[in-house]
Amino acid sequence: MNAPDVAVSPDTPSPLLVERADDRVVATLNRPDKRNAIDQATIDAIHALCAELEADPRILIITGTDGVFASGADIAQMRERTAADARAGINANAFIRINELPMPVIAAVDGWALGGGAELAFAADIRIATPDAKFGNPETGLGIIPAAGATWRLKELVGEARATELLLTGRIVDAAEALSIGLITGVHPTADLLAEAHAVADRIAKNDRAATMATKRVLRAPRADHPHVDLEEQAVLFESPEKHRRMTAFLERRAAKQRSAE
């Protein structure tokens, strides 16, 4: 991968370090002195990265630094925000953009993922974590609601009853419980977390790019759009040269195995 992006001023490091490869990008939240709290500069960097990945789709891995994914939104900034800021959906729109990227997004979570940090993780397509990961939305204790996606994404991920209990109590969920309720798909040692995220990305990258993006689009479609949306996406893929190439290769491999078994 290329070296991480850094801000122009050496005294102001980028809040989001970005490493790029041909088929994937790794974005590392980089405000360790603020426990990776998501501030306006982070949101601006997320929008810039999304613009890049919308133009040149690649798998995205999002992770944190120093044993923290993201401790939440930057409270010092949030305290000063007004009704107009709330209606602007500053964090919500950035996380929607993350979720709607053409290629899959993987969140690799170590340590705290709270408030806006949890909502960023919820916006990913796949979440893996370390045993030290902790998820929670304590916003009501601060006099606000989790308005950057948790009130609707969490229901889709873990069911309405579980989401209701977690959001109304603000209870913290550890990695073991997160795995048991389907919030994450795997728990891995801290030292292996990024490698495991790359292993997931490797499996995705082996598949047909067009079929992967079509699958993500269909997964995001409203229930009322099915099965029409599935059939239209499949119709396009049925005419693709890559579908023919891959199916031909599959049949040739199977025929070769049958001959060797005889």
Descriptive terms for the model:
262 residues; 9 strands; 13% strand; disordered N terminus
Quick structural overview:
With 262 residues, the protein is an alpha/beta fold. The protein has helices spanning 40-55, 75-79, 83-88, 90-99, 116-123, 150-158, 160-169, 175-180, 193-206, 209-220, 228-238, 241-261, and strands spanning 16-20, 24-29, 59-63, 105-109, 112-114, 126-129, 134-136, 173-174, 186-187. It is globular.
- Low confidence ranges: 2-9
Strand content: 5-15%
Number of helices: 12
Distance between the termini: 46 Å
Query: Order of strands side by side in the largest beta sheet?
Result: 1-2-3-4-6-9
Q: What string, H for helix and E for strand, traces the elements in order?
A: EEHEHHHEEHEEHHEHEHHHH
Give the helix proportion (percent range). 40-55%
Radius of gyration: 20 Å
What topology emerges from the helices and strands here?
Layout (H helix, E strand, L loop, with lengths): L15 E5 L3 E6 L10 H16 L3 E5 L11 H5 L3 H6 L1 H10 L5 E5 L2 E3 L1 H8 L2 E4 L4 E3 L13 H9 L1 H10 L3 E2 H6 L5 E2 L5 H14 L2 H12 L7 H11 L2 H21 L1
Parallel strand pairs: 2-3, 3-4, 4-6, 5-7, 6-9
Antiparallel strand pairs: 1-2, 7-8
